[in-house]
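Protein modeling request. Please complete all fields; requests missing the sequence field cannot be processed.
Requester role: graduate student
Desired output: 3D structure, token encoding
Chains: 1
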Amino acid sequence: MKIKVQTLDGKAAKAADIDLNDEVFGVEPRADILHRVVTWQLEKRRATARGARERSDVNRTGKKYGKQKGGGTARHGNRRSPIFIGGGKAHGPRVRDFNPSLNKKVRAMGLKMALSAKAKDGTLIIMDSLLIKNGKTKALAANLAKLGWGKSALVIDGDAVETSFAAASSNLHGINVLPAMGANVYDILKHDTLVLTRAGVEKLEARFNG
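Delivered output (210 residues):
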């Protein structure tokens, strides 16, 4: 699959085309695989609550401390009751397991399908470089107005995001950046446009072929 390479000033790069690996960018997307991977990602984000001690967990005597009748007070069985100071928590938070597992092959397949989906619907853009002179937000905003990246764009670079671009885009709403190692299905599908650099393409293809 060949795709044109652009520059931030809106002009075509010197090497106008890049040949994308069909095994990474030409896979037929499957909704069931993408759904499984996105669900797995979101569940991995969830953190369980710290469990509270209920009346069965409190270390207090279980002995009945008063008479059943004649004491002038309620008929309590022991001091573990939630109404007493030091007693167990009534209906407190419990530890729940939000640590699902998903086969590595399915996760890799999901990422390939997410990349392929963007390439298939024409919302994949390849950039030659992300270098911004002086890292100015104003200059980047002017360039993006010409490029037409849509309301939201995910920009994926190589080992690390270009420092000047990261600084310039930090104040722009809808522009998010990631290194190639951080590429994931949820963020790719969430944004209107996926922007990859040449270095990002090389890293992603090497990630699957290595």
